[in-house]
């Protein structure tokens, strides 16, 4: 039993894969956690179920019609959950005074404003929404500092690195004796596929990840390895690690979730079954440890762990992400926005799998090296890159 009052939690993106895993952990520990607010974009029926199960004070929908449908259904079920709608409401439930922690699990740039609001309000921010950090980098880290927020990574790799770093780590690898950050990657569903088969792969094939069940956007990112590219940038900001000390290691079993290599030759790894409830429970309970419902790791069943160098010819997105990080300025924001547009077009059968890196590369070529030192500048770079990407996608669609 936890001794203190339950921590109050807002889950942004409650109907998604991370949102559901988060609520699974909450349900295991009703004495520790209490749901203050839940959000979804369109899936009002799924959010209704969650509201009836967790009785939050607020539920926020992205779309008006979905919000109306949810409000009606909640009312006829006798629920007291109040329904709100839109972006400002997301910021409100992230920054509200009673909230202790915010799970940032909206997918894509859409999660930036509410996640920033939580950071500015000094909440414990559980960050799954890597795109928000990639997009706004320094601004986001400044908001965390200024707001006195606690930022804990949910991405399994970054959560592993966080666990492998010293408790007093202050975003300075040199001072902590860190030589390299080793980011593991499964290689996704196409790690060994014939290169000439990639042009014709379908969204369904791209979303069939060998080790993890995730939302469709991140599943495609894993298939292109842009997910790892975004994670390199995420690691850069979270841990103050320059691009040169971040190394990607393909590890198909997804048992080692990442490692830290120290100056004395020690390499500290975090291992576990590939189940997002582990990093979620770790961050929610931190610095304590709680049951996450994850079965114990059976090393005899796993028997072996393999490692490979990433193949940048097969996975050009990984190279593009390193390029964008090294270019700095608007580079990461352009990379992320172009990727979101390209992945949506691929999922919609408008472009092929290999068009994804081509669209992103074309957008990065057009992006300058101007600094992005305000939120307006971040959103301007994002909007501009989306326009370039859409034009590029239209051109490619015309040739199909
Ligand atoms: P899902 O697609 O499963 O869920 C996304 C959630 O965001 C849903 O609740 C969705 O609502 C909501 N949403 C979608 N678009 C918007 C929008 N424009 N405005 C507000 N809310 C929106 O994604 P995942 O759970 O897989 O991923 C969430 C985040 O976590 C991503 O940033 C991903 O990179 C990261 N992550 C995920 C991992 C995983 O294992 N899944 C692992 C590591 C990181 P609705 O259901 O109504 O559409
Ligand atoms: Mg990850």
Short description:
The chain has 400 residues and is an alpha/beta fold.
Which shape, going by the Cα principal axes?
A: globular
**Count of spatially separate domains:** 3
Order of helices and strands: EHEHEHEHEHEHEHEHHHEEEHHHHHH
Number of helices: 16
CATH architecture verdict of the largest domain: 3-Layer(aba) Sandwich
The CATH class name of the largest domain reads Alpha Beta
Which cofactors or ions or other ligands sit in this model? NADPH dihydro-nicotinamide-adenine-dinucleotide phosphate, magnesium ion
Measure the end-to-end span: 60 Å
Question: What is the CATH topology of the largest domain?
Answer: Rossmann fold
> What structural category characterises the helix and strand content?
alpha/beta
The portion of residues forming beta strands comes to: 5-15%
What does this structure look like?
With 400 residues, the protein is an alpha/beta fold. It has three domains: 7-153, NAD(P)-binding Rossmann-like Domain (Rossmann fold, 3-Layer(aba) Sandwich), CATH 3.40.50; 170-271 and 289-315, no CATH class; 328-400, Orthogonal Bundle (Rna Polymerase Sigma Factor, Chain: A). It is 47% helix and 15% strand. The protein has helices at residues 17-28, 44-54, 64-76, 87-95, 112-120, 130-147, 156-164, 203-207, 216-224, 226-239, 277-285, 299-302, 316-327, 331-347, 355-366, 375-398, and strands spanning 7-12, 33-40, 58-61, 82-85, 101-104, 124-127, 150-153, 178-185, 246-250, 256-262, 267-271. It has a seven-stranded parallel β-sheet, sandwiched between helices. A four-stranded mixed β-sheet has the order 9-8-10-11, with helices on one face. Helix 6 links the parallel strand 6 and strand 7 (150-153). Helix 6 (130-147) runs parallel beside helix 10 (226-239) and helix 10 (226-239) runs parallel beside helix 13 (316-327). 48% of the residues are buried. The site of NADPH dihydro-nicotinamide-adenine-dinucleotide phosphate has 27 residues, from helix 1, helix 6 and helix 9. NADPH dihydro-nicotinamide-adenine-dinucleotide phosphate (NDP) binds next to helix 1, helix 6 and helix 9.
């Amino acid at each position: 039993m936890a001794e203190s009052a339950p921590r109050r939690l807002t889950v942004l993106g409650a109907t998604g894969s991370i949102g559901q895993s988060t609520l699974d952990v909450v349900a295991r520990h009703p004495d520790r956690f209490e749901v203050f607010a839940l959000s979804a974009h369109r899936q009002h029926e799924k959010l209704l179920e969650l509201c009836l199960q967790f009785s939050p004070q607020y539920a926020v929908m992205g779309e008006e019609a979905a919000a109306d449908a949810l409000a009606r259904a909640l009312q006829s079920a006798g629920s007291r959950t109040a329904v709100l709608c839109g972006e400002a409401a997301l910021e409100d439930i992230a920054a509200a005074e009673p909230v202790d922690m915010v799970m940032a699990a909206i997918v894509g740039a859409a999660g930036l404003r509410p996640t920033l609001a939580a950071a500015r309000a000094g909440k414990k921010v559980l960050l799954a929404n890597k795109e928000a950090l990639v997009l706004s980098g320094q601004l986001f880290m400044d908001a965390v500092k200024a707001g006195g927020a606690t930022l804990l990574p949910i991405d399994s790799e970054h959560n592993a690195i966080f666990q492998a770093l010293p408790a007093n780590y202050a975003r300075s690898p040199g001072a902590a004796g860190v030589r390299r950050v080793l980011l593991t990657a499964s290689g996704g569903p196409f790690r060994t596929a014939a290169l000439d088969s990639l042009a014709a792969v379908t969204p369904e094939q791209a979303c069939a990840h060998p080790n993890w069940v995730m939302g469709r956007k991140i599943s495609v990112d894993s298939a292109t390895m842009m997910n790892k590219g975004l994670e390199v940038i995420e690691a850069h900001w979270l841990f103050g690690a320059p691009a040169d000390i971040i190394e990607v290691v393909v590890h198909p079993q997804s048992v080692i979730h990442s490692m830290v290599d120290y100056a004395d030759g020690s390499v500290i790894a975090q291992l576990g079954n590939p189940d997002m409830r582990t990093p979620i429970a770790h961050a929610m309970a931190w610095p304590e440890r709680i049951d996450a419902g994850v079965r114990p790791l059976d090393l005899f069943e796993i028997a072996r762990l393999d490692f490979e160098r990433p193949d940048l010819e097969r996975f050009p997105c990984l190279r593009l992400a390193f390029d964008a990080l090294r270019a700095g300025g608007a580079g990461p924001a352009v990379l992320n926005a172009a990727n979101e547009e390209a992945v949506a077009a691929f999922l919609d059968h408008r472009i092929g799998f290999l068009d994804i890196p081509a669209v992103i590369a074309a957008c990065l070529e057009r992006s300058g090296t101007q600094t992005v030192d305000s939120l307006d500048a971040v959103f301007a770079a994002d909007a501009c890159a989306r326009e370039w990407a859409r034009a590029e996608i239209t051109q490619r669609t015309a040739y199909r």
